[in-house]
Design a protein that fits this description.
single chain, alpha/beta, Phosphatidylinositol 3-kinase, Chain A, 7 strands, disordered N terminus, RhoGAP_dom, GTPase activator activity, Rho-GAP domain-containing protein
């Protein structure tokens, strides 16, 4: 199977997601060759990947090398000068792995401008395997790499991050992996009634194993996995698509509607209708299937506490996102979530024949 490097620059490793949407970044100090290259890449990650979510940062050496406090202090000072404070405020945990550093030394090494930001967020652990105490599960490849000096960490060709059309397509017109997940939910309606459905993340190691099966198109194995693992793959696959299901321009246009005070629901749906007329068939059919699932899940709101508003908060970023993330654009993101809610409620309105028909739009029933 084709191999490729897991990280873009030496010393900075993206190690998956925590709690379904929280990126984990591991800084391996003995691997860093160019600190500028690392902080520039870190800035790019923070601006483009789950840009409104918290993240966890782990600092370590490969485990045959001791990590000294001076190394950590130098790295933190460099990041302090080059990572914007608004980005760093999102950090949920800063974990340092070392058996030679004292906790008070670590606290004293924090730049003064970050001291209030990192209150109760700094953690010192002695060994790599103690990451599980922070709900961080690494893949076996990652564990092997971090446990010895090795410059050639590699992993299988990524499953996430492709264009939706690059996945094998089922006869339903939806990617096979998504079709397998949607059929799983059809068979396991009880899971959709579970409180917190789609909000609880599954085991990272189980996620990796399921992905490996999906990569060889073995979908029959899906029933052997925990439902939360399946929902984690479902969400990660959608939110990490190379291009979102809806074109980038759609986010920008919908965001601008916040300036139009009296825009009607009919006009908004007419806009969706125009976009869908020009979207690839796989995008349209995938949207229809997933919108149907979300409507079904929302019907169990009294049991799962996941009405359509909450589901839209989870899934809108999977479908609609800007090409360039703007952290200050919270109001725009809120507007887009509301529009996605409207889309799900009315998906049949504009997907009946995939054609623009402005003259008949006023005759159709719109759900508000």
């Amino acid at each position: 199977m084709k191999q490729e490097k897991c990280y873009v620059v030496p010393g900075l490793l993206k190690a998956g997601l925590l709690n379904g949407n929280q990126p984990i970044y591991i800084l391996i100090l003995n691997q860093i060759k160019d600190m500028k290259e690392v902080y520039l890449q870190m800035n790019q990650y923070l601006q483009t990947f789950n840009a409104f979510s918290p993240y966890t940062c782990v600092i370590c050496n490969q485990q045959t090398l001791q990590l000294e406090i001076n190394q950590v202090k130098q790295m933190l000072n460099t990041f302090y000068k080059n990572i914007p404070l608004q980005q760093f405020k999102r950090i949920d945990k800063l974990i340092v792995i070392s058996d030679t550093i004292q906790f008070q030394q670590l606290v004293n090494a924090i730049p003064s401008g970050w001291s209030t930001v990192l209150i109760n967020k700094v953690h010192l652990i002695l060994r790599l395997n103690q990451l599980v105490d922070h709900n961080i599960e690494l893949t076996q490849n990652q564990i092997d790499f971090l446990s010895r000096i090795n410059n050639n960490y590699q992993e299988e060709t990524p499953f996430y991050g492709k264009d939706i059309s690059e996945y094998p397509i089922a006869n339903t017109g939806v990617p096979e992996c998504l079709e397998a997940i949607l059929q799983y939910y059809d068979r396991h309606d009880d899971y959709l009634k579970k409180q917190g459905v789609f909000r609880i993340s599954g085991s990272v190691q189980q996620e990796q194993r399921l992905i490996q099966q999906f990569q060889i198109r073995n979908y029959s194995i899906i029933d052997d996995y925990d439902p939360d693992v399946i929902s984690t793959v479902f969400k990660n696959l959608l939110c990490q698509l190379k291009k979102p299901i809806f074109p980038f321009e759609m986010y920008d246009i919908l965001k601008e509607t916040q300036k139009l005070v009296n825009i009607s629901k009919e006009k908004l749906l007419e806009m969706f209708q125009v976009f869908f007329a020009y979207m690839p068939e796989v995008n349209r059919k995938t949207t229809k299937r997933i919108a149907g699932l979300l409507s079904h899940v929302a019907a169990y709101e009294s049991e799962n506490l996941m009405g359509l508003n909450n589901l839209s908060i989870v899934f809108a970023p999977c479908f609609l996102r800007p090409e360039q993330i703007d952290l200050s654009d919270l109001e725009g993101a809120k507007v887009v979530v509301n529009h996605f809610n409207l889309l799900v409620k009315n998906v049949e309105y504009f997907l009946q024949d995939f054609k623009v028909n402005r003259n008949s739009s006023s005759q159709k029933n719109i759900i508000i």
